[in-house]
UniProtKB/TrEMBL annotation:
<feature type="domain" description="Enoyl reductase (ER)">
    <location>
        <begin position="29"/>
        <end position="337"/>
    </location>
</feature>
<dbReference type="InterPro" id="IPR011032">
    <property type="entry name" value="GroES-like_sf"/>
</dbReference>
<dbReference type="InterPro" id="IPR045010">
    <property type="entry name" value="MDR_fam"/>
</dbReference>
<dbReference type="InterPro" id="IPR013149">
    <property type="entry name" value="ADH-like_C"/>
</dbReference>
<comment type="subunit">
    <text>Homodimer.</text>
</comment>
<keyword id="KW-0560">Oxidoreductase</keyword>
<dbReference type="GO" id="GO:0016628">
    <property type="term" value="F:oxidoreductase activity, acting on the CH-CH group of donors, NAD or NADP as acceptor"/>
</dbReference>
<dbReference type="InterPro" id="IPR020843">
    <property type="entry name" value="ER"/>
</dbReference>
<dbReference type="InterPro" id="IPR036291">
    <property type="entry name" value="NAD(P)-bd_dom_sf"/>
</dbReference>
<dbReference type="InterPro" id="IPR041694">
    <property type="entry name" value="ADH_N_2"/>
</dbReference>
<dbReference type="Pfam" id="PF16884">
    <property type="entry name" value="ADH_N_2"/>
</dbReference>
<dbReference type="Pfam" id="PF00107">
    <property type="entry name" value="ADH_zinc_N"/>
</dbReference>
<protein>
    <recommendedName>
        <fullName>Enoyl reductase (ER) domain-containing protein</fullName>
    </recommendedName>
</protein>
């Protein structure tokens, strides 16, 4: 039975406040390249790993979340794309490509096989199964069509618009016939939104002294749909710019991840005044839409109607820095880490 080196990223301790690189450690472990007989498990070589903002919640001890915390000293887990190198499960054979929950390490033994699914190696790049055709893509698809209940001609605002989720929301909204504006944290991202991703307008929120005035400038007639990825001050500013019967889809609050004592939202009374529907959602409630979502978004991609920005960091040892970068906007597009190409 071959035992090989297995580089791993572990959480050192539970964190308080913003995550930092020193909260994680890259260590040299080992892996047996054989699935224990009768285990029903699958041994995979990890190729691409996804950095997602929700993982920050799993690093907190007392985070009342929809998913249990990581344990200090254990390998961090998250979405990944991997290749099967041994299998004791009839649904997966050696050489298959899979996506799903795996470890931040070179080789993982996956025993909860409901966490992975087979994917085809075709004209869609393998790492896109972590973004465009993965969890962020489903989030954008379900959030836009199901939660935002769009109408053609709606005025749509998307925050963190160049990120994994935001860029898809904006493009789906454009295809639907909406007027779409995005906010992002650098001029480079603003240029990409307007140039490459086809948004009607975009602004750098870090250069605006008055977010409400910036939104008023972009939406003189108000906002019908706000797809909120950031929460905090941007949510407050969007609320006062909403139109009557507007919809706010609360997807995430990445701006709050760093705070143990989040600031409050001041403009909630506009929900009453303007009869706004504000709804939080989790993509996991929409897994039944997965086949419809993949067919729709893959077709749009193949037809050139959707482009996808990806930020690929090379090497497992760079995963902690790539992950931390999400919280200061270092990623330009979906943040992925390449562990191995095949
Ligand atoms: N509800 C669900 O089921 C679900 C599923 C997936 C993701 N989410 C949520 O969706 C949001 C976007 O996730 P993603 O995977 O697409 O991440 P992402 O946008 O690819 O990366 C995070 C981005 O957030 C922005 N950001 C970071 N700190 C910020 C701050 N203090 N204020 C404003 N913006 C900040 C940065 O962009 P800038 O440079 O533009 O600041 C950064 O690039 C997150 O809130 C995430 O938790 C929810």
């Amino acid at each position: 039975m071959a035992v090989v080196p297995n580089k791993q990223v572990v959480l050192k301790w539970f964190i308080v406040g913003a995550p930092q690189e020193k909260d994680m450690e890259v260590r040299e472990g080992t892996a047996e390249l054989k699935v224990p007989e009768g285990s029903g498990g699958v041994l995979v070589k990890n190729l691409y790993l996804s950095c997602d903002p929700y993982m920050r919640g799993r690093m907190r001890e007392n985070y009342s979340s929809y998913i249990p915390p990581f344990q200090p000293g254990s390998v961090i887990e998250g979405f990944g794309v991997a290749k099967v190198i041994d299998s004791d499960n009839q649904n997966f054979k050696i050489g298959d490509y899979v996506s799903g929950i795996t470890g931040w390490e070179q080789y993982s033994l996956i025993t909860r096989n409901e966490h992975i699914k087979k994917i085809e190696k075709d004209d869609i790049p393998l790492p896109f199964h972590l973004g465009l055709l993965g969890m962020p893509g489903l989030t954008a698809y379900a959030g836009f069509y199901e939660v935002c209940t769009p109408k053609k001609g709606d005025y749509v605002f998307v925050s963190a618009a160049s990120g994994a989720v935001g860029q898809i929301v904006g493009q789906l909204a454009k295809i639907y016939g909406c007027y779409v504006v995005g906010s992002a944290g650098s001029q480079q991202k603003v240029d990409l939104l307007k140039g490459k991703l086809g948004f009607d307008d975009a602004f750098n929120y870090k250069e605006e002294s008055d977010l409400s005035a910036a939104l008023k400038r972009c939406f003189p007639e108000g906002i019908d749909i706000y797809f909120d990825n950031v929460g905090g001050a941007m949510l407050d500013a969007a609320l006062v710019n909403m139109r009557v019967h507007g919809r706010v889809a609360v997807c995430g609050m990445v701006s709050l991840h760093a705070y143990t004592d989040p600031e409050g939202i001041h403009n909630l009374f506009t929900l009453v005044q303007k009869r706004i529907r504000m709804e939080g959602f989790l993509q996991s409630d929409y897994l039944h839409l997965y086949p419809k979502f993949v067919e729709c978004v893959a077709n749009y991609y193949r037809q050139g109607k959707i482009v996808y920005l990806e930020d690929m960091k090379e090497g497992l040892e760079n995963a902690p820095a790539a992950f931390i970068g999400l919280f200061s906007g270092k990623n330009v597009g979906k943040q992925v880490v390449c562990v191995a190409r095949d």
